[in-house]
Design brief:
Number of strands: 21
Strand content: 15-25%
Helix content: 25-40%
Structural class: alpha/beta
Number of helices: 10
CATH superfamily of the largest domain: D-Amino Acid Oxidase, subunit A, domain 2
Shape: globular
CATH class of the largest domain: Alpha Beta
């Protein structure tokens, strides 16, 4: 496809990061073709809570020791799960994960996550303004809950950490919680309240709106699996059922990026961290805020058409089917916070694959040996949050402009 007036770019992966990247590259003057084996927005991007999680800056390895990690992985009610069949496959990754649990590494990851997150909302506002999509964006506020009175110090530590990183919130008691959100259980102890928390009304519809604008402006979508990417002289050869040439390629294939990188001689410790959600019918349940359990690590989100409960970090790989007891766990734990959910029928159950690296940071980089191959994957729980800002940074890198933030922490060769 080289030889056109515009430089040609293939974006591999039509999740939220890929769709945002395709649109931003198109706006920057490139002729963009988007590839995915499934329809746009139907991977991990489909199942998230719709939370632009500016406030989530702690890596998965925080507060982990070898003992606590093992205890969580084997507990049937833990938010962090490791099916026994995956233990051998993940042994090397788990060692790297535990190495990230040092205080120095945790603080480094927090700074890098925060650097992306603090730009995220404004980046989304720019993108949504461009596609006439600001109606997707809302600011309901976010309540991070603790049930146990014995966990007050945990809340205070979290408050101090948030303030240290410039994130506004306040500690509130059970009376204030009930006033803010009458649907919550009366036996909750305390919470952090984030008034400036944003969400999108429907993450799947948002992806569809961005994709539609991309197509309307002359973008091309090929629903094909990309099986290999290779440098060929001054162009990049991308192979599906046929071979195609592009000036540049961006790999945004989420948890499936690792296979493509192996063909390019680049080893990155990327795993598929599986997440689950349960969508409940709204009925007469009127939630006003995004809600999370600090103790059980799940989110309850009032979306346009449902109440979505999202949680579980399961290191289950790409091939294992959904484990049904995970859905039951989410139903039971969420009903412990919102009693009306006990009698609410679920609309749908979902499991998807989050692309996760040991330090909980994405890769946003050029291939070290092939500068016309760019990389944007590994956003773990924050693909929606960081999708728009990642796309802006990719364009800056591709045009050899100064990037909005230092991209060294997101290097592909940092491990």
């Amino acid at each position: 496809m080289s030889g056109h007036n515009k430089q040609t770019v293939a974006v591999v992966g039509a999740g939220v990061v890929g769709i945002c990247s395709a649109l931003e590259l198109q706006r920057a003057g490139y002729q963009v073709t988007l590839f995915d084996k499934t329809p746009p927005g139907e991977g991990a991007s489909y199942g998230n809570a719709g939370f632009l999680a500016r406030q989530l800056i702690s890596p998965l390895a925080e507060n982990m020791s070898v003992f606590s990690a093992i205890k969580m992985w084997i507990s049937p009610n833990s938010p962090l799960c490791l099916p026994p069949s995956q233990l051998i496959n993940l042994a090397t990754w788990l060692v790297r994960f535990m190495q990230q649990a040092s205080k120095k590494n945790i603080e480094s990851s927090k700074r890098a996550i925060n650097a992306l997150n603090e730009l995220s909302v404004e980046s989304w506002k720019r993108l949504l303004t461009d596609i006439d999509g600001l109606h997707f964006l809302h600011k309901p506020g976010y309540i991070l809950l603790w049930k146990s009175k014995n966990k007050m110090q945990d809340a205070k530590n979290e408050l101090d950490m948030m303030q240290h990183h410039g994130i506004k919130c306040k500690l509130i008691n059970s009376e204030k919680i009930k006033k803010l959100e009458p649907e919550l259980d009366e036996n909750l102890s305390h919470a952090l309240y984030f008034e400036d928390a944003y969400q999108v009304s429907d993450p799947y519809k948002l992806c569809q709106a961005i994709f539609s604008k991309f197509i309307e402006r002359g973008g091309v979508f090929a629903q094909q699996e990309v099986v290999s990417i290779k440098q060929q002289d001054d162009t990049i050869c991308l192979t599906t059922s046929k071979k195609m040439l592009f000036d540049k390629v961006v790999i945004c294939a989420g948890a499936w990026s690792k296979k493509l990188l192996n063909h390019l001689g680049l080893s990155v410790p990327l795993v598929a961290e599986r997440g689950y959600h349960v969508d409940f019918q709204k009925n007469n349940l009127n939630l006003k805020h995004l809600i999370a359990s600090a103790e059980n690590r799940f989110f309850i989100s009032p979306l346009e058409s449902s109440i979505r409960v999202v949680g579980i970090s399961e290191l289950g790989g790409l091939k294992l089917g959904a484990i049904k007891k995970r859905f039951k766990l989410l139903k039971n734990q969420s009903a412990g916070i919102i009693p009306k959910l006990r009698s609410s029928k679920h609309k749908s159950l979902w499991m998807g694959h989050r692309p996760t690296l040991p330090d909980s940071l994405p890769v946003i980089d050029c291939h070290p040996n092939h500068p016309n191959i760019m990389l944007a994957f590994g956003h773990q729980h924050l693909g929606l949050t960081q999708g728009a800002v990642t796309a802006e940074i990719l364009v800056q890198m591709m045009k050899n402009e100064k990037t909005s933030i230092d991209t060294k922490p997101y290097s592909a060769t940092r491990f």
